[in-house]
Each structure stands twice: as C-alpha cells, then as structure tokens.
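Comment on this:
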Amino acid sequence: MNTTRRAFTILLATASLAIGLGGCATASCRSVSRTEMIREKLMSSDRNYVFVAMHRGDWRNYPENSRDAILSCIALGADIVELDVQMTKDGRFVLLHDDRLDRTTTGKGKVSEHTLDEIKKLRLKSNQGGKDAKPTDYEVLTLEEALALAKDRILVNIDKFTQHPYEILQAVDRAGAMRGVLVKSTLRPADAKKMLREYWSRVESGELLYMPVVQFCWKHDDYAAEMMPQWLATEPRKASMYEFCMESDKGAAKLENIRLAPGSPRIWINTMWDVLNCGRGEARGFTNPAETWGWSLEQGATMLQTDYGAELLVYLNNIGRHTL
C-alpha cells in the first residue's frame, strides 16, 4: 500500500477511536479499562458493533508478533490482537508463529530446542521473513511481556493454544491476565473441559473467554456437524461465540444454525484468505470491501479477523459498526 495512503488511513482509524471513546478523559471513565469495555460489549446482546481482531498484530508495518505490532493494534483501536505462542526448551512461551526459528528470526532450528535466553539473543526479521527480509532491532517477546503490553488496552487471542493449553493458562494466570485473553479450539465440550482442567471453572464463570472453532472445510464437515450441536446443547451454554472457517458457500449455509441458536452467539469469521471465508479473502483488494468484509457481515459475523486492520476499521466506522 502507498505509504501516504497508509498513514492517512491510520490517522482516520485513530481519530475514529477517539470519537468512539468520547468522554473517556473523565475520571469516571478512566476507572474502567478499555479491555473491560470490550469484554462488556462482547458479552452484551449488541449485534451492531463489530469487533476487529488483527492477525499476528499489525504485521504489515512491523515484524509479526512484535512489540510494535501489538502497540500499533492498540493505537488503531482494534479490539483483539491475535498472537502465536511456542514453548522453549526450558518451558517458557514466546511469541512465534512457526515451530522453527528460521523464517521470522535470525536463528535456526526448532524453538523447542532453544532456551529462552538463547532466543532472546536473536532478532526478528522484517517482511514476515520473506525473500527480502532483514534483521531488525526487535527481540522475540515472551507471552508475559505481550500480556503486560496489552493489559487494560486490548484483548489477546492466543493462537496455537491447544499445543500446551494447560501450561499456557498457568502462565496467563501467573501474569494476572485471565480477563485479558480469549482462547479457542476445535475440541468438543468434554475434551475442552478435560484439557483445561481446573481452568474450565473460569470458562463457566465467564472470567476466561473461550470460543469453539467450527471448520466447514478441509474435509472436516462431518466433525464440525457433530461438534456444533454439542456446544449448542451445553447448559449452561459455555460458548457465547463461535469461529467459523468455511471453504465454500456450502459451509456458509451452516451459519443459519448459529444465527437461530438460543441467545444468538457471536460469529467470528477470518477474512484473510479464500479458504477461510468461501473464496472472499480480503487480499483481492479494497475497491469494493462490501464483497469481502461486507459479505461476512451479511452472514451474521460480528467478529472479523484481518490482515488489514486500519482499512477494516475505517470501513466499519464509515458504516457505523465500530463505536464502543
């Protein structure tokens, strides 16, 4: 994207956030954190507001999962920042998408074969680790460091969660950040409860936000069709939101079951790639965003994950769908 246009877009998105949070300069408003405001809206019956989740942070302007990639999401006014975690040799969690260091850092080999101290000496690469990538000054963040950056300002969606779900929640708990995270998986209710152990009570109480992922794609149709009714029938219902991955319009037809479900749970759609939202990935351009983001809204989605956070925020503000 043209640098001038990008800067202008970010300015608009930031200005829109300021308008949307108008009055928050007062002492009474400051007493409620922005994270709590997002949570309250998320659990409300309001289906006009659309939540924006930025994929791997603002990676188009900063290295993915980096400090400034997170801070940029906050500055833009996104509601959720999606971050990836991997476990080190000494049992710590760091923000890296791949299980290897090669693509996004100056290191080589598996993350699990290096200690945190060793990984901290590395630097993140620019350009998502592509052909023209160069070392930057950014170090790899720990999960705890990321949670501290996000505290009170934005929800954190922890991806790669099911690799080490219990241990990740232990780290979140130690950081005092349980109300600041959203976790998700493709597990059935009984399996999720077993995997989360005592932390399942935090899901039941509403402290920990948990979202089932329903994949009507990649030959998972039968499993998704079996899993979804189990979640819908769970009483008291543990899922107030669902992520849908849909490879074709056949999957989109299944959304009707969610829209008509008791309590009308929220729908999360990943708008990044064609295989996730029925061939309407946002990479095809923004000359007509109604064909990409607009289509997802028509399916009932009120949570959109994007690689183009600034542009999506402008679009939603223009149609009156992103004002806390």
